[in-house]
Amino acid sequence: MKNNLFLSHNTRLVRVFLFVYCCLMSGSCSDENSKDPGGSSANENLVIMTDPNDPLLLQAKDAHGDLVEYYGDRDAEGLPLRVTHIIYKQESGENIYALDESGRINKMIAANGVEFTFEWLSEKQAALTVVTKDGENQINTMIDFDNPEGGRLAAASNQPLRNIRAGKSISLSATSVKESVLQNQKTAATGNVNVNVNACGVPSSATVFVKVSETTSGNHVGSFPAKMISQGIYQTSIPTDNLPIKDNRQYCEALADVIGNVCMANEVFNASGGPLICVQLSIIAAGISGPGAAFVLAACEALSLTADVTCLTLGFDGGFGGKSVIEKMCESKFLDREFEDLTVSAYALGIPNNIYSSPQVVNGGQLSGNTLNFNLDLGSKTAVRSLALVPSAPAAGQDYQSIASVYCLPIGATISLSVLGTDGYRDETSMTVSSNQKETEFTLGVPGADSGVQDVVTLQITVPGQESITRTASLVFN
């Protein structure tokens, strides 16, 4: 039954992209430069946004109402520079794809909240971290797109696993994180909406969006992804009444170029790339107890659609590029979104619910040249910011570290870390907090194991007066 649902979902998605693809390649999209979203001659299924302050670059819609939206950065004239996010919207939820500076997918959040993070080691290799929405289950593995057979999976081997680390112990240390360290990562600040995120009184990382709707009608304008300027500080732009660019042809060329770059940057996901990851995760997830494995495998379906999301929407399938695609894109509808009063709020994806700021009402024209500021407080309850395994896919015999970043730890809290390997290795250690800590990193040193061994690291935090927190992460030795 599950396989049938998977095929049905994929079939529908293919129809979405084929619809847009045929529109582009057949020339059936009509030519219109209009500010009216209800224009009679422009094609309503492919809309290019021209407001220089609008981070939404392109929106494609099929007959079912499913949307694929491209968000990104523009230059001073409003021309697209790069795509930063792609959001695929369905009735069942949204799949969010975040891109790095080169256009590669570095994070994907599925509709069920499972998060995939790629650390690209080369053009064809990536360290993949998968975390369930509740944060309780985490999988770490290496993906080698040049080696579809894998060879890194413990469950795939019938050979007995040797315990080459018998008699060796794990080690635990703790380091308080200073606020000056939290501010060391910065990017260029460009936008008219600032969002400050804090937890336990210190700048905190989160996945942040700015939600905009028309105050009078209540119509949803968009949920705009915010990018991190520095730790705890995020920024995005929302549409104002600035004049759009005049040369639509120039815009088409720029947009075709940046989306073409995204397609080429993610070509490893074509063919068997997505399914390869899902097969690999299915084997590792077999070692996860509880519902976490099912959530991961369900979310992997969205990951397998990456090639479609980054390429097929605009016909960049390797056979059509350059002028023909530019021409068809220029025949779509152009829109400079203008609004009167807007209701704006910020929110961060949270567990189990999102965290929202208080809304602000602003006039679209008044926003031009001004900045909106929001604050998001993630609370002062003890929480795990991250549980990282470094390296994510160690070589045979290579030691690794498990680094737990925890904030809001009160006096008397106990941190316990344990390791269980499929080679029979088992060890655990713990530490009690002697003073209140805003944020602390706990580093666990783990001895290396033989090739094919799978380790499960378990973090447990016991806080007086609170429910204990448990997180797990797993990896496989190369």
Description:
- With 478 residues, the protein is of the alpha+beta class.
- Helices cover 19% and strands 38% of the residues.
- The strands form four sheets. Strands 1-18-2-3-4-5-6-7-8-9-10-29-28-25-26 form a 15-stranded mixed β-sheet. Strands 12, 13, 16, 17 and 22 form a five-stranded mixed β-sheet that branches. Strands 14, 15, 19, 20 and 21 form a five-stranded antiparallel β-sheet that branches.
- Strand 3 (56-61) and strand 4 form a beta hairpin.
- It is globular and about 70 Å long.
Main sheet attributes: strand count, strand direction, barrel closure: 15 strands, mixed
Q: Would you identify the regions where 5 or more consecutive residues have pLDDT less than 50?
A: 1-43, 150-157, 179-189, 312-324
What is the CA–CA distance across the termini? 34 Å
Number of strands: 29
Helix/sheet category: alpha+beta
What characteristics describe this protein?
alpha+beta; Immunoglobulin-like; 3 domains; 15-stranded mixed sheet; five-stranded mixed sheet; 8 helices; 29 strands; 19% helix; disordered N terminus
Write a brief structural summary.
With 478 residues, this protein is of the alpha+beta class. 19% of the residues lie in helices and 38% in strands.
Write the layout of secondary structure elements.
Layout (H helix, E strand, L loop, with lengths): L1 H25 L5 E2 L12 E4 L6 E6 L5 E8 L5 E11 L2 E7 L5 E5 L5 E6 L4 E7 L5 E8 L26 E6 L2 H4 L10 E7 L2 E2 L4 E7 L5 E6 L1 E4 L2 E4 L11 H18 L7 H13 L6 H12 L2 H5 L12 H8 L2 E3 L5 E8 L6 E2 L3 E4 H4 L4 E6 L5 E8 L9 E10 L4 E8 L4 E7 L4 E10 L7 E9 L6 E8 L2
Parallel strand pairs: 1-18, 2-18, 10-29, 12-22
Antiparallel strand pairs: 2-3, 3-4, 4-5, 5-6, 6-7, 7-8, 8-9, 9-10, 11-27, 12-13, 12-17, 14-15, 14-19, 16-17, 19-20, 19-21, 23-24, 24-27, 25-26, 25-28, 28-29
